[in-house]
């Protein structure tokens, strides 16, 4: 039995590994899965950064919440010809982010600290170094939970916008013939509506990951068909597979 869903657009970069569950799903259910981010990250120019009147060398520690932040921080330092002293301390949200620092610095010679993935874990680590002056590289669109926790602990920090999230526009001649769209952030929904102001959902299924994205789908007046994480589907791929399995089952019954 053929599925009604033949072509799925996943608004993320194509997985680097061939072992991604998306490829298994495509093969198992005979669906075509395209990967195309609806949003992309752009660096701020050194001129734009200077307008924030932040001098990187005034700080004794940097807090990184993502690998993207590390890339943009070091590229901007290079552009500004700022040499980071060996005494600089680095605080990262997770060990994986901390290890990524090796791309730019000699890891074992530096003071590097990390949490377990939650803002509160990282703040506990930071609070043990309360005398430091912290710089936090962020995107123009960012969550505030970490900053409010730092304020409670009276940590001296400055947010530095070093990159921005922009809509990854579709070209006029690009085909948009998908039976299902999968989103991972509210900005992905905004980008869809910017690219296709007359977008009509009709039979197109929409899936999303995370409560803020689900809220954005509903606020845009769209129908949400597949949601993750849930107890049955902790990941987007698990939710997608459950949905396709159910579709196939319903079709066989019909």
TrEMBL record:
A GO molecular-function annotation: uroporphyrinogen-III synthase activity
InterPro entries: 4pyrrol_syn_uPrphyn_synt_sf, 4pyrrol_synth_uPrphyn_synth, UROS/Hem4
PANTHER family according to UniProt: UROPORPHYRINOGEN III SYNTHASE, UROPORPHYRINOGEN-III SYNTHASE
Protein name: Uroporphyrinogen-III synthase
Alphabetical GO biological process terms: uroporphyrinogen III biosynthetic process
A Pfam family it matches: HEM4
Species this chain originates from: Parabacteroides chinchillae
One annotated Gene Ontology cellular component of this protein: cytosol
TM annotation in the entry: none
């Amino acid at each position: 039995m053929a599925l009604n869903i033949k072509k799925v657009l996943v608004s993320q970069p194509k997985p680097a590994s061939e072992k991604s569950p998306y490829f298994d799903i495509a093969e198992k259910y005979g669906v075509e899965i395209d990967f195309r981010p609806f949003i992309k990250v752009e660096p701020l120019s050194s001129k734009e950064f200077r307008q924030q009147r932040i001098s990187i060398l005034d700080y004794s520690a940097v807090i990184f919440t993502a690998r993207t932040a590390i890339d943009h921080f070091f590229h901007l330092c290079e552009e500004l010809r700022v040499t980071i002293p060996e005494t600089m301390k680095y605080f990262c949200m997770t060990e994986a982010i901390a290890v990524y620092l090796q791309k730019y610095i000699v890891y074992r010679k530096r003071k590097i600290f990390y949490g377990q993935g939650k803002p509160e874990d990282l703040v506990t680590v930071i609070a043990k170094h309360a005398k430091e002056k912290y710089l936090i590289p962020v995107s123009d669109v960012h969550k505030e939970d970490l900053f409010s926790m730092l304020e409670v602990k009276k940590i001296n920090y400055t947010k530095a916008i070093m990159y921005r999230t922009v809509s990854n526009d579709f070209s006029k001649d690009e085909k948009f013939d998908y039976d299902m769209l999968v989103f991972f952030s509210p900005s992905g929904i905004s980008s869809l509506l910017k690219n296709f102001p007359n977008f009509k959902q009709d039979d197109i299924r929409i899936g999303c990951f995370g409560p803020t994205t689900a809220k954005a789908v509903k606020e845009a007046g769209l129908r949400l068909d597949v949601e993750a994480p849930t107890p049955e589907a902790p990941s987007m791929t698990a939710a997608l597979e459950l949905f396709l399995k159910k579709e196939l089952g319903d079709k066989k019954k019909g």
